[in-house]
Amino acid sequence: MQTSQIGIPARWVTVVMSAVFVVCWSSGFIGANLGAGEAPVLTVLMWRFLVVAVVLGAAVYFRWRRRGLAPMSGRAVGSQVVIGALSQAGYTVTVYWAIALGVSTGTTALIDGVQPLVVAALAGPLLGAVTHRRQWWGLLVGAAGVVLVTWSDATSSADAPWWAYLVPLLGMAALVAATFLERRVVDPPSPMIILAIHCGVSAVIFTAAGLLAGVAVPPADRTFWLAIAWLSILSTLGGYGLYWILLRRSGVTSVNTLMFLMPPVTAVWGTAMYGEYFGWATALGLAMAGGATWVVNRAESSTKVRDRRRAAEAVGAL
């Protein structure tokens, strides 16, 4: 059994990281609602990424001074700039916009929950990855759970116009595109460097947008800065950082299947903090999403074990 450097089985390390990732990623929807009540969307996004970019920039600088960093080509930096613009700026602005329009945090997360099916469908033609039959069943069950909870949540509230429910789909498409672009990177830098570049790009984009829109000055309200701290630490460093780490560790299908857990977790969280609707359909969707995650990840794990066994048998036959 493969173990980590501190003697813990690597499988359990991945499980813990996955659980923390789900909580951190879900926190972004809650934090977006927290910030949306205090300032315009561009103001929240501008200061969120400015804070993280400064922190990560300082961390990269001190690491460079102490250990040195491998040089990156202009093409490599350009690739990360594009990936960052899609995965952070493109994704977050649609989430915040939808919530500002009146879409609940749970519904926004639920609409984004179709991402695993899109990734699974495109993984074969774009990456040459194989999605097995059991994984497809798990993905379909998870998608059904997402649709069920989305329908229940959307019909329980009429705060947002109908077209606002399409906005999160644009963010989902941006994140899917960024995921596949990252998988084509041959020699990616460390996750810290990746996150620093992505946050730096997003900070530049949203600062320029905030200045042009005349909303760059932050409010003095304590709740606003609480939202910024929440979004910077949990959502950006925790959520996005673990996303790229787990993408390398577990693969596209397993990581994106965890997205099925975001909608029900966010729905429960939104109910607890904001009194958003939570009914039997939400509970059933939670069970379906959890079951789908278990099925898909178990199928992938079984496939890896079988492939290693076949490889060992082939070597023994030589």
UniProtKB/TrEMBL annotation:
Positions of transmembrane segments: 12-32, 44-64, 76-97, 109-129, 136-154, 160-181, 193-217, 223-246, 253-271, 277-296
Coiled-coil portions: none
Keywords, in A-Z order: Membrane, Transmembrane, Transmembrane helix
Entry membrane topology: Multi-pass membrane protein
Database matches in InterPro entries: AA-Vitamin_Transporters, EamA_dom, EmrE-like
Annotated Pfam families: EamA (PF00892)
Cellular location(s): Membrane
One cellular component term from this protein's GO annotations in UniProt: membrane
Taxonomy, superkingdom: Bacteria
Location of the EamA domain: 15-150, 163-297
Similarity annotation: Belongs to the EamA transporter family.
Protein name from the UniProt record: DMT family transporter
